[in-house]
UniProtKB/TrEMBL annotation, chains A, B:
It comes from Aegilops tauschii subsp. strangulata (Goatgrass). The keyword Magnesium applies. PANTHER family: 4-COUMARATE--COA LIGASE, ACYL-ACTIVATING ENZYME. Its EC number is 6.2.1.12. It catalyses: (E)-4-coumarate + ATP + CoA = (E)-4-coumaroyl-CoA + AMP + diphosphate; (E)-4-coumarate + ATP + H(+) = (E)-4-coumaroyl-AMP + diphosphate; (E)-4-coumaroyl-AMP + CoA = (E)-4-coumaroyl-CoA + AMP + H(+). GO terms for molecular function: 4-coumarate-CoA ligase activity; trans-cinnamate-CoA ligase activity. Keywords: Ligase, Magnesium. Belongs to the ATP-dependent AMP-binding enzyme family. Residues 452-527 form the AMP-binding enzyme C-terminal domain. This is 4-coumarate--CoA ligase. One of its GO terms (biological process) is phenylpropanoid metabolic process.
Length: 548, 548
């Protein structure tokens, strides 16, 4: 049994990029990508990716070089998910909602060799590159991504390279490097770009392949999906569906912005069957006159559990919602697999069941709620006992790039510790009861409260600071800062603190409420009791200033 | 990127057996297996498998030891798919349609350490063990599998060990060996047990895991399937669905025999949603008064393409047929992924499209039709140019056990050569035009014509022999032997030759027609022109003798 060797025929590195040549071979004439008046087939997408990969190689891109992209859900971002690893490089899709400083931190930490920038983000990229240059760090080659049917303007002068020109220039017949090892990196996704030690999550080809398979299975994506890109591709590579839609020979419907009219038009024009989004997109879909859908659209949602009211309203229109849970370090991890018999339950009970994060996807070896101590024992399955969600499996990240400390902290006793606190119900379904202590999720974006506290403490009038989530009618939640004034008599001015933050961080991270208190509540060990602050924040309303 | 090490948390060997503990954890209270009055939950199945694995270890079973089973689709066969590899051993499920000699060849070649035998096959096993013992080869430990609600009789005296007693005796808390390497063997499946060099196909855990994922995806098996075991589990581990049903937390409906009444009763009693079968089972389903199904049943079929007439009749009853292609060496390989738009076509066109074997499943890296020469170039995608179906990917077998020659022949130029001849249509769908020269598929069972010819040549009256497939109204096809008499005047007696074969091979392999001719048609190189013989056989009818 043991003497049978691995052969090139029966031991092929697992690789999600391989879904593209397969799609070109077996779904070649079917539509791959639509975007406005633009439409490609899978054969064309494959050729365009081969061309871009060849162009990257001829620019000097080599194995493990990072190629960054700052762009919305346009065809270029999609194509780069294949073209960049086809050049043996690592794709780094950057969150377009970050500010210049955060983008600069990522570009430096990743040591990006090439940087693709959508025309809409030229200013942001310019500022970020300036910060990189001012620090004396190496500046990447920059290429602009223009909408194909828009005339290319002054931007080209500024940026030298242009996406379509690279695609045209690349030789589709050039021999590309083949994947040597499935453990090789395919993507680099940052969880946060504001701290001094950014966490760059590295995915292996093996992990991304398995995650894609697991996601397709757990969500039940069949043949020929028509997938609407509401979820940004820069979030965990579109929860793996960048690769997944190719695996299924589906249609990628790209849109630049999530406006209700655009979403409904895309759904009806292309017969959308699937989309992913944070619950905030439900608010967009429900604003104004929401039409009843002609055919059901399957929606995978995550970040925060959809509320019963929201669920009821979107499901009435014709959306079929699956609730899932994932994180940058793991990609998709849990999914609330729906049982047919639950369809018969009243709405309140259904939402209650659907609010649970659910069971591990098949590409994980194990998921559980454990007590984070030496024993790492499982909590009882009583729906009450709290523990930390822990994951294990080949679909997890390789680790954080150049961040030994974060790696040692995250990987523990054979598990990856998510930092999220939850319970296991008697039926084995997991539910998160308390998000990772430091994370606030606003409109699907993770905000690190530790980062905010660090910035707030730099304000001359602030002596102590703690940031927690407060409810927000549109964004789900938003940061609320509790501050202690250095000079009790002088106090701290809320508007000024908010202005101070807006200069120093991405807009979505800015606290929308500042509360000045005498002292932060601390326990006997000196730790801030955030539970108390969250309770207090529950009854506050966001400040008007921050809403501007 | 390269410095991030593999860790126990993020590099877990891929293992289809892991679907069982997951099912126990997250689908624990749901039904796993039903069989007559017997019913288990996933938690019970997990515990029973742990017990059996512990019992095997205490019998002395060690890593890479082979545990064979000769049984129909009963719960024990299902459980052994998990319990045997949980003991680090390799499962060898033997085709119950073989004769004693063929079973003996397998037991010897596999060096089976333990041999489980269903009560119905005690006589066959006894004869096979006698042959093994007579040859002075080591005889395995033998355990009988009795139906749980049947009283155990004399058989125990003969066989010493009994399945349920082992399950009872095993300690469910015993520590079991953990999988060291995903390349380690999980199963050993024989393609043929009659030749002097049997081909024992070894699956790795990695391959079986990927194949299971690929099969679930390509067939679109969603949550909570109710799976009816019509396909024998000894065929490629039930086309991977032994492991696949656990992955999906489905119900395994076990039946001992494929009788129409039993099949329809199971479908209606348990709400069957999925089943696999060779087209021969369609004949069983259509015989007599076929009721209309209350809900659609998805059927995956393979071996031979379903004819238009058959397809029409089964689909009218409510079966939804997917046509697929696989082989022992690869497991599932191609599936005729159905396009929604094809539903609108007239029946004849639909069957024509469905008769194609289709596109590669996602766990393969590549599948193509190639010219088997030094270039291994692809044939044009014209639906006409013939080539050999070639496969590549981690879901393929590790190789043939102790058969260097077969391995060297099968793995060629980075491909696994299937031996099947086909074309690629312009849309990328593959279609087999001529089965591997030596294989006849009768009622879903592969018969090696070379083996038959070898046996026929041992008959004193036979000078030359060639065996090809002839059509058969029930079995699809059946072997037809063309013989040249040693003494032209004396000839060869058909009945006698058939009787001769029945003594020497499994019943399903026996030629059902013998034709005596002056000389076999041979080409310039001396090769028998089987195409001509197949044409001749097309108009013959099976002999009455062989039908007994």
């Amino acid at each position: 049994m043991d003497k049978l060797p691995k052969r090139p025929a029966n031991y092929v590195p697992l690789n999600p990029v391989g879904f593209l040549p397969r799609a070109s071979a077996v779904y070649g004439a079917r539509t791959s990508v639509v975007y406005g008046r633009l439409k490609f087939t899978w054969r064309q997408t494959h050729e365009r990716c081969r061309r871009l990969a060849a162009a990257l190689v001829s620019l000097g891109v080599r194995k493990n070089d990072v190629v960054s992209v700052l762009a919305p859900n346009v065809p270029a971002t999609y194509e780069m998910h294949f073209a960049v690893p086809m050049a043996a490089a690592v794709l780094n899709a950057i969150n377009t909602r970050l500010d210049a400083k955060a983008v600069a931190v990522i570009l430096r930490h990743a040591q990006a060799k090439v940087f693709f920038v959508d025309y809409e983000y030229v200013r942001l990229a310019h500022d970020a590159l300036q910060i990189v240059a001012d620090a004396g760090a190496p500046v990447p080659l920059v290429a602009v991504i223009d909408d194909i049917d828009r005339p290319t303007g002054v931007r080209l002068g500024l940026f030298k390279l242009e996406y379509e020109a690279l695609v045209r220039k690349g030789d589709p017949a050039a021999e590309l490097p083949s994947l040597e090892d499935e453990w090789d990196a395919v993507a680099l996704n940052y969880t946060s770009g504001t701290t001094s030690a950014p966490k760059g999550v590295v995915y292996s080809h093996r992990g991304a392949y398995l995650n894609t398979m697991g996601q397709l299975l757990s969500w039940g994506v069949g043949n020929e999906p028509v997938y609407l890109w509401t979820l940004p591709m820069f979030h965990c590579n579109g929860w793996t569906l960048t690769w997944g839609v190719a695996a299924r020979g589906g249609v990628n419907v790209c849109i630049r912005e999530n406006r209700a009219a655009d979403l409904y038009r895309a759904i009806s024009d292309y017969g959308v069957t699937h989309m992913c989004c944070a619950p905030v997109v439900f608010n967009i879909l429900l604003a104004g006159q929401a039409p009843r859908l002609a055919a059901p659209v399957h929606v995978l949602t995550g970040g925060a559990p959809p509320t019963a009211a929201l669920l009821d309203r979107v499901e009435r229109i014709g959306f079929k919602v699956t609730h899932s849970y994932g994180l940058t370090e793991a990609g998709p991890a849990l999914a609330c697999e729906w049982r047919h018999q639950w369809d018969l339950l009243p709405l309140a009970e259904r939402s209650h069941l659907k609010a649970r994060q659910g069971v591990s996807i098949l590409s994980l070896a194990d998921a559980n709620v454990v007590v984070d101590d030496d024993t790492m024992s499982n909590v009882p399955r009583d729906g009450k006992s709290l523990g930390e969600i822990a994951l294990r499996g080949s679909s997890l990240m390789k680790g954080y790039l150049k961040n030994l400390e974060a790696n040692e902290k995250a990987f523990k006793g054979g598990w990856f510790m998510t930092g999220d606190v939850g319970v296991v119900h008697p039926d084995g379904y997991m539910e998160i009861k308390d998000r990772s202590k430091d994370v606030i999720i606003s409109g699907g974006e993770n905000i690190c409260s530790k980062d905010l506290e660090y910035t707030l403490l730099q304000h001359p009038a602030v002596a102590d600071a703690a940031v927690v989530a407060m409810p927000h009618p549109h964004w789900g939640e938003t940061p609320c800062a509790f501050l202690v004034a250095r000079d009790k008599a002088a106090g701290v001015c809320e508007d000024e603190v908010i202005a101070f933050c807006r200069e120093r961080m991405s807009r979505f991270m800015v606290p929308r409420k500042v509360v000045v208190i005498d002292a932060l509540p601390r326990n006997a060990l000196g730790k801030v009791e955030k539970v108390k602050l969250r309770d207090a924040a529950r009854n506050l309303v966001p400040s008007t200033v921050a809403r501007l």
